[in-house]
Amino acid sequence: MSENRDDPDIFWVDPIRRGIFPLDSFHISRSLAKRIRRGGYTVSLNADFEGVVEGCADRQETWINAQIHDLYMALHAREEAHSVEVWDRNELVGGVYGVTLGGAFFGESMFSRRTDASKIALAYLIEHLRRCGFTLFDTQFVTDHLISLGAIEIPRADYQKMLTWALRHDADITAHSLPSPSEVLAASA
Fold it and tell me: Which of 108, 123, 111 is nearest to 36 (CA)?
């Protein structure tokens, strides 16, 4: 992370309590389920990785400086960083991105330019990770927003055990196509 977009320094974060999304307990509220059923958007994998990173950095305060941006682009070029995008026609309106290593997905950031667009991206991503053999979705920290979707905090020691297990597994985020809306909804039922 960086303190802000203009700070040239970057640092590692290893919180005492780590945020994770248990892949089997993502919470889709009734209003989000209704929005997913209603449609009117498309969801893609890795169609505009840079657009998602830029969308995440496009806020008053951001930890994504130029060096971090470039490092994520390099990871994406090596197929180690991925994004899920939500589109309204040809406009990118939301998304989430992160880094994969073994069976772990390290969620870095998400953004939304339309109501619930980042939640839609997250719902698709979580079901997709589950289907592709991932065992850990690391969020680093939790916020009230993430907790409302099912994220939890666990002690560092428990996280490190889960991480060790996940790193021993091979998972491939490109092994399957993204789930359909009905598959996303069925997984959270």
Answer: 123
